[in-house]
Amino acid sequence: MFPKPFKKLHDHLKETLENREITTPNSLQINSIPVIKSGINTFCIAPAGSGKTTTLILTTLQALQCEAVGEAPRAVVLVENKEKALEMQDAFMPFTRRTSLRLYVAHEKMHIDLQKSEILAGIDILISTPKNLNKLFLLNGVHTSQIKIFSVDDADFLAQQSDYAALLSISQSIIKSQYVLYSEKLDAKLKRFESYFMEYSKKVSDQ
User: Fold this and answer.
1) How far, rounded to the nearest angstrom, does the alpha carbon of residue 38 sit from its chain's CA centroid?
2) Which CATH number goes with the domain that contains 34?
3) Which of 23, 78, 94, 203 lies deepest, with the highest CB count within 10 Å?
């Protein structure tokens, strides 16, 4: 028997957690998963090693109900660079295995036309870097109308002005989505997003 909030997750996620011998949520997951599942824009603040990536994966797949739908991406995960993108892909794989979900990784090292054609062929979850995703959006390489949840992993890297500006540009291309930013601290620069796409946001932590 899973305790809350794992108890209310999709059966596939509970089975995967059990197979990985993760049966008890930590304090961050207890505080954050119900808030994120409710659809509220969320700042998820916690130190390294506190389970932010697992929380991101669980809430993303929960929002998509662990199944493929349509052709346009319904979830976006923003990361700092190619290495982080590949690490995130590896972290997702145990949870997307034996589902119909289509996971796609895009970064600056890939040819942009190849990315466009592969994305338009149909995906559910898009992992990308800010500058690369902004370029795709500007070239109409991603349909944005179906995006349900947009997460940023380790958002501290948005202190870099180019990434910060790219995310602001990206947000202007998305009509409606839930945003979840994961970070070790909520500094003034991240809080500034409240004036743009993080309206009515809630801060949760592992405290």
Assistant:
1) 15
2) 3.40.50.300
3) 78
Contact 44, 182 (CB under 8 A): yes
Cis peptide before 25 (omega within 30 of 0): no
CA distance 27 to 30: 5
DSSP 3-state of 19? helix
pTM reported for the whole predicted model: 0.96
Chain centroid offset of residue 148 CA: 10
Q: Are 175 and 145 in contact (CB under 8 A)?
A: yes
Tokens of 168: 């602001």
Domain that holds residue 20: 6-205
Q: Where are the alpha helices (DSSP H) in the chain?
A: 11-19, 27-37, 52-63, 82-96, 112-120, 130-138, 161-171, 188-191
Residue-wise pLDDT for 50-94, tens only, equals: 999 999 999 999 999 999 999 999 999 999 999 999 999 999 999
